[in-house]
Structure formats: structure tokens, C-alpha cells
Write a structure and sequence with these properties.
Number of helices: 12
Strand order of the largest sheet: 1-2
Structural class: mainly alpha
Helix content: over 70%
Shape: globular
Radius of gyration: 19 Å
């Protein structure tokens, strides 16, 4: 049964869910959207970030968001190392299209298996003062386990957008896959630019993973549920457009929440992909086009 109260709560929940989706898709918007690197393992790094948050929270009781922020430099270095391996093995020899995809696909399963061997398949969760609490504004509910990740995601996305638009390196990252020669004439090394960009992309996974385990318990294979969704968000928003990615994430989050509320959760993912197909049919470059 439709009601204004239920509809409004559905939209608010969808906006919070979509904001979280944006945090997960942000790194992929950089690596896939701007570098043309099909990092299918990105959601697995998000799960890895969730387990880092779980381990530190379980042993020291620190806030999950704080843990994610503290581990950003570690994930950044991991991303830079990952690109160095990818470049040496595939990009330098021109085999990045298929062999590179197989590399990330294999990496996804290696990380997942290692997590299973160490922690098993039991669901893990974290503790924080705001988990389980809800703010009420009239008849609108704001569960803090969703509201906190939404705010953090918005801030993180905003900082990345500022970096991309206001710094030389940010602009170089946006240009590296579009005009490599012009970038070299400007004195920038495309390899260094891509290494930094992949480092930033993986660094966002540290925060996104912490947000994920705040929202729901995780186990090693949960990342697979987000592979199709995050690629859909990046393509829907426009390849390389981070603001477009954020809008697309909000759109899919609201639609999924609306469908889950009024028609059942099993239909939600299908409708999200339906919007993607419809958008590509009408506007193939996505909502914002390529940055």
C-alpha cells in the first residue's frame, strides 16, 4: 500500500544507500572510467578494507571510519604496487585488454581465498556507538548505520572531485587515457600518473570497506554482489565522470529502495540494470558523458 510517509522514507533510505554505492564505485570510476583499466577486483579490495576495519575494531575498539581513514595510505601504496605489476606484466607488452582482465579476475579470487583460509566463511561485524541507533525527523527515519556512511561517502567523493579539478596531477589523471602525447608534452610521465591514479582508486577501498561493514556483516564473497552494480554505476554516470557516478549511484539507490519497499527486494537489482540499459539506449555516453 502506497503512502506519503512510506514513500518519503523509501527515498531517504535510497539516497543513503546510493551514497554508499558511490563510495564503493569511486575507485572504479578512477581506474576503469579514467584509466581504462578493468579492475574487476575492486570490490574485493573493498572487502579487504572491511576485514582490516574488523580486525582493528575487534582488537582495539577503534571506530571503523577512523580505521578506514588511517589505512588510506597503506591501500594507496598497495595500489601503486599493483599498477607496477600490471604495467610490467601486461600494459608494457600491450596485453592489458584480455590478459589484464584475467589478472584482476585471478587476483579477486586469490584475495577471497586467502580471507576464507584465515577467517573462514562466518560473517564478521564491527561495533560503534552509532550502529543500531536511529534519528527521527518527523516521520522520517535516519538509521545511523546508513547515515554515517552516506555522509562519509559524500565527503570522500567531494575531496576526490576537488583533487581532480584543482590539482595538476588530478587533471593529468583525467587526461592520461585521452591524450597521452599531450600529457607527455606537458612534462608528465603517463606511467607515474597511472600509478598514482590506481593508488588513489585502491585507497578509496579502505574507507568504502569500513563503511560496508558498518552497514552489514561481511564475509569474503560479499564483494561479488557489488561487481555488476559498481560497473553499472560507472557506465551509467558517464565514463570518467565522478559527479556523474555519484548521481548514478543515488539514482540506483533510490530506485532499488523504492522497488524493495513496494514490490520486494528480489526485484531491486533487476530494475537498476534496467535503468542502465534504458539510459545507454537513449544516451550511450551516460548521464554526464566522459570527463
Amino acid at each position: 500500500m502506497f503512502s506519503a510517509e512510506l514513500l518519503l522514507n523509501s527515498v531517504v533510505a535510497g539516497l543513503m544507500l546510493g551514497s554508499f554505492y558511490a563510495a564503493v564505485a569511486l575507485g572504479l570510476a578512477i581506474t576503469f572510467g579514467q584509466l581504462d583499466i578493468v579492475n574487476i577486483a575492486h570490490p574485493t579490495f573493498v572487502i579487504f578494507g572491511s576485514y582490516v576495519a574488523y580486525i582493528v575494531n575487534e582488537n582495539f575498539g577503534f571506530d571503523p571510519v577512523l580505521i578506514g581513514v588511517v589505512f588510506v595510505p597503506v591501500f594507496y601504496l598497495l595500489g601503486m604496487l599493483l599498477y607496477q605489476v600490471y604495467y610490467a606484466c601486461f600494459e608494457r607488452t600491450g596485453q592489458e585488454s584480455l590478459s589484464g582482465l584475467a589478472f584482476f579476475f585471478g587476483l579477486m579470487f586469490i584475495v577471497e581465498v586467502l580471507l576464507i583460509l584465515v577467517y573462514g566463511v562466518d560473517y564478521r561485524l564491527v561495533e560503534a556507538p552509532y550502529i543500531g541507533k536511529t534519528w527521527h525527523l518527523g516521520y522520517i527515519d535516519f538509521p545511523l548505520r546508513m547515515a554515517v556512511p552516506a555522509v562519509v561517502s559524500f565527503v570522500m567523493t567531494g575531496l576526490v572531485v576537488l583533487f581532480m579539478s584543482r590539482t595538476f596531477m588530478g587533471k593529468a589523471i583525467q587526461a592520461v587515457s585521452q591524450d597521452r602525447l599531450a600529457l607527455q608534452l606537458m612534462g608528465a610521465d603517463p606511467i607515474k600518473v597511472k600509478r598514482i591514479a590506481l593508488g588513489i582508486g585502491i585507497a578509496t577501498a579502505a574507507v568504502a570497506g569500513a563503511l560496508l561493514i558498518i552497514i552489514q556483516p561481511v564475509e569474503p564473497s560479499v564483494g561479488r554482489l557489488y561487481i555488476g552494480r559498481v560497473f553499472a554505476i560507472v557506465v551509467l554516470g558517464g565514463m570518467g565522470s565522478i559527479p556523474g557516478m555519484f548521481v548514478a549511484a543515488l539514482l540506483i539507490g533510490v530506485v532499488e529502495s523504492f522497488i524493495a519497499t513496494f514490490y520486494g527486494p528480489s526485484w531491486a537489482p533487476a530494475v537498476g540494470y534496467g535503468i542502465l540499459l534504458l539510459t545507454l539506449a537513449i544516451r550511450p555516453q551516460g548521464l554526464f558523458g566522459r570527463a
